[in-house]
Each structure stands twice: as structure tokens, then as C-alpha cells.
Amino acid sequence: MIQFHNVFKRYESGHEALQNVSFNLKEGEMAFLTGHSGAGKSTLLKLIMRMEVATRGQVNIDGINLNQLARRHVPFLRRKIGVVFQDHQLLYDRSVYENVALPLVIEGMEPQDIGRRVRAALDKVGLLSKEKLTPIMLSGGEQQRIGIARAVVNKPPILLADEPTGNLDPQLSSEIMQLFRQFNAVGVTVLIASHDLDLISRMGLRMMELSQGGLTRSGVPA
Ligand SMILES: Nc1ncnc2c1ncn2[C@@H]1O[C@H](COP(=O)(O)OP(=O)(O)OP(=O)(O)O)[C@@H](O)[C@H]1O
């Protein structure tokens, strides 16, 4: 589902953020991406979303070769990928409902279909009763759940997260990871960048470690 073949990414500054990275994440797999600050984790996620383009090598997402993807087709790629950020990136002047509905409104979906999908997504993250509130009224963990509901509302086959538990305590972090696990259990391919080695090792899933832009380890931690 997510394939990197000898991928290099050099920024215009000359900095080589990724060097010769190769891996294959199969459909329905869930894995973590870890590494020191500046190791290249965010860069790798940006290549998957086509926010950045590889300097060398090949990135394939759900059979699409991103090297050959025309700019006008990038929105089709993005619809396949739900993204969760550390800082949620919610709109604080809109309700919970409106925040989650946003990707569907942009897609041009009919309002009655939007209602059904938004409520299904809010139900999955346990926030159905809070749809009329604004995010500011909710706790950090709840805000992250809204971010997750928004990421999955259009049922993407791929879910990416960049430090999704960075601001949460261990209990909430663990709950958020279980949520990702639930989406993975119904077939979504999940890749999560995280510094939280304790949490990752407890999950018993594949971990890929980046160091100075190179993939130094890939496997289930002992
Ligand atoms: N747009 C850019 N232009 C130039 N250099 C960049 C750019 N984006 C990232 N870099 C550099 O590339 C390297 C990798 O950055 P990246 O954000 O991918 O690391 P990271 O592993 O996600 O780090 P962190 O855990 O701190 O978020 C860093 O040295 C960073 O300064």
C-alpha cells in the first residue's frame, strides 16, 4: 500500500532529509515511524501525501507512482489518506460537527449524506454527544479524537499521524493508540510517527527507525 524504493529527499537548502529509504507497508498493516528530532519522519509522511516530492527513487501509494502523478491528480491521492497532526489543526470558531464535516463539504457531498458520515465518525471516537460544542470546550484528548474523526470521515484506506500523542499524558496516549488500532482492525493501513518508545514497544507492532535520514531498523521491538 505504501512503498518506498531507494528514496532520497534533498531540500533546496541542500539538506539531505532522507537517504536511500526503502520499505513496504502492506494493505491493512499498522506500523510506527520513530527516530531522533530531525531524523526525517515528517519528511517521509510529506512524501506520502505528495506535499514534497522525492529527489530520487520511487514512492508508490495504493499502486500510484507519485513520481508520475500530475498535479491535477493530487487531490485524488489526498482523498485516500487521512492525516492526524499533533496540534489537531482544528477550527476553533466552528462546532465539532463542522470540523469533522469539512473534508466532505470540500468534496461536495450532499448535506444528508454528510450528516450520516459525520455522526458515524463521531460515534467511532466516542464524541457523538459533543457535536454541537466548539473544540475549545473539550479536553486535549477529546480534541485529538475530533482530529481523528475528521481524518477518517471520508473512509480513507490510509491513515497517517504525526506525533498524535505528543501533548497527551500516558493514559490518554494509550487510548488514542487503541483508536488507531480499531481503524486498523477494519482494514485501514496505519503509519504513525512518534517519539514515544514506551508506548510503541507496548503495542507489539512493526517499528521503523530513521536516523540521519536513513532507515536503520525495521521490525517488532523485543
Ligand atoms: N522545507 C525544508 N527545507 C529545508 N530543510 C528542511 C525542510 N523541512 C525539513 N528540513 C530539514 O530536514 C530534516 C528532517 O526534518 P523532519 O521534519 O522530516 O524531521 P523529523 O524527524 O520529523 O523531526 P521532528 O521529530 O523534530 O519533527 C531536518 O534537519 C530539517 O531541518
How would you characterize this protein structure?
- Belongs to the ABC transporter superfamily.
- This is Cell division ATP-binding protein FtsE.
- Part of the ABC transporter FtsEX involved in cellular division. Important for assembly or stability of the septal ring.
- Its main location: membrane.
- Residues 2-222 form the ABC transporter domain.
- The structure is a single chain.
- The chain is α/β, with parallel strands linked by helices and 222 residues long.
- It has two domains: 2-80 and 156-219, Rossmann fold; 94-154, no CATH class.
- Helix content is 35%, strand content 27%.
- It is built from seven helices and ten strands.
- The strands form two sheets. A six-stranded mixed beta sheet has the order 6-7-8-3-9-10, with helices on both faces. A four-stranded antiparallel beta sheet has the order 2-1-4-5, with helices on one face.
- Helix 3 packs parallel to helix 5 (140-152) and helix 5 (140-152) packs parallel to helix 6 (170-185).
- It is globular and about 45 Å long.
- Residues 11, 13, 15, 17, 35, 37-43 line the site of adenosine-5'-triphosphate (ATP).
Average per-residue pLDDT, rounded, comes to 94
Strand order of the largest sheet: 6-7-8-3-9-10
Number of domains: 2
Order of helices and strands: EEEHEEHEHHHEHEHEE
Q: How many beta-strand segments?
A: 10
Major sheet size, sense and barrel closure: 6 strands, mixed
Q: Uncertain regions: pLDDT < 50 for 5+ in a row?
A: none
Helix content: 25-40%
Protein name: Cell division ATP-binding protein FtsE
InterPro entries: AAA+_ATPase, ABC_transporter-like_ATP-bd, ABC_transporter-like_CS, ABC_transpr_LolD-like, Cell_div_FtsE, P-loop_NTPase
GO biological process, one term: cell division
Family: Belongs to the ABC transporter superfamily.
